[in-house]
Design a protein that fits this description.
- The complex is a heterodimer of chains A (about 240) and B (about 290).
- Chain A contains nine helices and ten strands.
- Chain A has about 240 residues and is of the alpha/beta class.
- In chain A, the strands form two sheets. A six-stranded mixed sheet of chain A has the order 6-7-8-3-9-10, sandwiched between helices. Chain A has a four-stranded antiparallel sheet with strand order 2-1-4-5, covered by helices on one side.
- In chain A, helix 3 (about 95-105) runs parallel beside helix 5.
- Chain A is globular, with a radius of gyration of 17 Å.
- With about 290 residues, chain B is mostly helical.
- Chain B has a single domain (about 5-120, about 130-280), classed as ABC transporter involved in vitamin B12 uptake, BtuC (Orthogonal Bundle).
- Chain B has a two-stranded antiparallel sheet.
- In chain B, helix 2 runs antiparallel to helix 3, helix 3 runs antiparallel to helix 8 and helix 9 (about 220-235) packs parallel to helix 11 (about 265-280).
- The longest helix of chain B is centred in the N-terminal third of the chain and has 32 residues, at about 5-35.
- The radius of gyration of chain B is 19 Å and the shape is globular.
- Classes of the chains: A alpha/beta (about 240), B mainly alpha (about 290).
- The structure holds adenosine-5'-diphosphate (ADP) and magnesium ion.
- Adenosine-5'-diphosphate binds near residues 14, 19, 42, 43 and 45 of chain A.
């Protein structure tokens, strides 16, 4: 299987503070990959560097065999990458329906695997909220909308940053179910989350980041073999 | 004031208000979406009027002049955004003031160099000249009704574009969180060029259609800019709906005060603004 994403030696700084110290990993097409790590270790910064939101000082990002390190963010997204950021990125002046409509587009091959109706089928809770503004929704509904909006861009690579953070257990479960559905549809996915148990069983590969460095990169089996080390690195 | 005069003044006030809306909507749209306060916005009104004069004289047809001038205005908007405004997005407000005030001087020099400082006028196009009887005793110039109708068509088109189209949704989303709009694969810089060009077009359009009913004089842009600021501040900075309501209020108050209270008419709209800001410091429709 070919790699959909190759990340080589990312060095990223915010002003003078050096956050990423040579982050590297590969993701195979169709794979679901977790990125784990304590708060402040550089998980979100890794995602932002991949997307050009926090451009790395050095290192490269190869996506579908092409070097995209210097592309503006929107052009990367146009190559069928979708991003659900921490904080969900709701628009205060757009309704739920408008969030979905403004983002909807065919992918770069002209295919639309996800439609407006399909997204509402997956997230029936949004149906009653269609005329509400994005910021009027509950946390869980916002998350569903953010994921639904991302799906409507028909991505090949979906990047989720803390999609279940701060949500009630029942809502979390719903979100995980949808993520599983997305995985089954063949979309490559990067998931940043704290729930190791779910990640262990959902993702093929796992990456652990500590202080801006990848300290573990392996499949679920290897993860289980190194359980003690992983749990130690995640403990607060 | 008898009823017929009252009605004619109301029509004048509404017409002036609608025209103010045309200009102010561009100013407030550009500010709301792009965070740019374009002080040269009034200059685009002036340029629109002078272009209309130039091409009407050249072609003998106001309607031809209307189309040519409107197209040139769009082009000017695109060029200014691509080459000048684009450098402002990451800079502070002082730089915005310096650049856009600089543009005022440039456009004023161009105006003075090309057309001179004597007042100029454009004739009302024959097709729209004359008056129609509204009632037995009231007559009203057709051209002013045309201006009002055109402004209403533009206002409705703007409303539909902003509220019902994908482009409009993207523009509003950009107002809320431009980074997230980029995250969704939208070329925000192209969006900004479009919005700025629309803003310039709206101001110029107002200048073009005003050309037959005002006299073209140096400084006409600054005068309009100040009225525009009053409208935008009353309506709430960045709110198009607010600009619409405020423009009508300002148009009507300005028109009646010059008839009823000519002694204070030049300050009436500022008094109005002060009163409204006392009650609503953010303007009428600040979101
Ligand atoms: N915009 C920013 N400016 C400065 N420092 C930042 C910024 N964003 C994050 N950081 C810092 O970078 C480090 C890594 O942050 P982040 O990647 O968000 O961590 P994580 O997602 O793993 O919790 C943290 O110490 C954080 O304080
Ligand atoms: Mg984070």
């Amino acid at each position: 299987m070919s790699n959909i994403l190759e990340v080589h030696g990312l060095q990223t700084l915010y002003g003078a503070s050096h956050i990423l110290h040579g982050v590297s990993f590969d993701i195979k097409a169709g794979e679901t990959v977790s990125i784990m790590g304590r708060n402040g270790m550089g998980k979100s910064t890794t995602l932002k560097s991949i997307l050009g939101i926090a451009p790395p000082r050095s290192g490269s990002v190869i996506y579908k065999g092409e070097d995209i390190t210097r592309l503006p963010t929107w052009k990367r997204m146009r190559q069928d990458i979708a991003y659900v950021p921490e904080g969900r990125g709701m628009f205060h002046n757009l309704t739920v329906k408008e969030h979905l409509l403004m983002a909807a587009r065919k992918n770069s091959r002209g295919e639309a695997n996800w439609t407006y109706d399909q997204v509402l089928e997956v997230f029936p809770r949004l149906i009653e909220r269609l005329t509400n503004k994005g910021t009027q929704l509950s946390g869980g509904e916002q998350q569903m909308l953010a994921i639904g909006r991302a799906l409507l861009t028909n991505p090949d690579l979906l990047i989720l940053d803390e999609a279940t953070e701060g949500l009630a257990p029942l809502i979390r479960k719903e979100i995980w179910q949808v993520i599983r559905k997305i995985k089954d549809s063949g979309v490559s996915t990067i998931i940043v989350d704290k729930n190791i148990k779910v990640l262990n069983e959902l993702c093929e590969m796992h990456i652990l980041i500590v202080k801006g460095k990848v300290v573990f990169n392996g499949d679920s089996e290897t993860l289980n073999e190194n359980k003690e080390f992983i749990e130690q690195s995640l403990a607060v | 004031m008898d009823t017929s005069l009252f009605l004619v003044q109301l029509l004048n006030g509404v017409q002036y208000g609608l025209l103010l809306f045309l200009i102010a909507s561009g100013l407030t749209l550009v500010f709301g979406v792009m965070g740019i306060l374009n002080l040269a916005h009034g200059s685009m009104y002036m340029i629109g009027a002078y272009l209309a004069y130039y091409f009407t004289t050249l072609t003998g047809s106001f309607f031809l002049a209307f189309i040519i001038s409107g197209s040139i205005a769009l082009l000017i908007g695109i060029v200014i955004e691509r080459f000048l405004i684009i450098h402002l997005y990451k800079r502070d407000h002082l730089d915005q003031v310096l650049l856009t005030v600089g543009l005022i001087f440039i456009f004023n020099s161009i105006q003075s160099f090309v057309w001179g400082n004597d007042p100029l006028g454009v004739e009302v196009p024959a097709l729209l000249s004359g008056s129609i009887k509204l009632t037995d005793i009231i007559e009203y110039p057709i051209y002013r009704l045309f201006i009002s109708a055109l402004c209403i068509v533009v206002a409705v088109s703007m409303y539909l574009t902003i509220n019902k189209t994908k482009l409009g949704m993207m523009i509003r989303a950009g107002e809320s969180d431009r980074a997230m709009v980029e995250n969704l694969g939208v070329d925000i810089s192209k969006l900004f060029t479009i919005v700025f060009a629309i803003g310039v077009f709206l101001a110029s359009l107002a200048g073009i259609v005003s050309a037959p009913i005002v006299s073209l004089v140096p400084g006409m842009g600054e005068h309009v800019l100040i009225s525009c600021f009053v409208v935008v501040v009353i309506g709430g900075l960045g709110s198009i709906k607010g600009a619409f309501v405020a423009a009508l209020i300002v148009g009507i108050v300005d028109t009646y005060s010059s008839v009823l209270l000519p002694q204070i008419s030049s300050m009436s709209i500022y008094l109005l603004m002060a009163l409204i800001l006392l009650v609503k410091p953010q303007g009428l429709f600040k979101n």
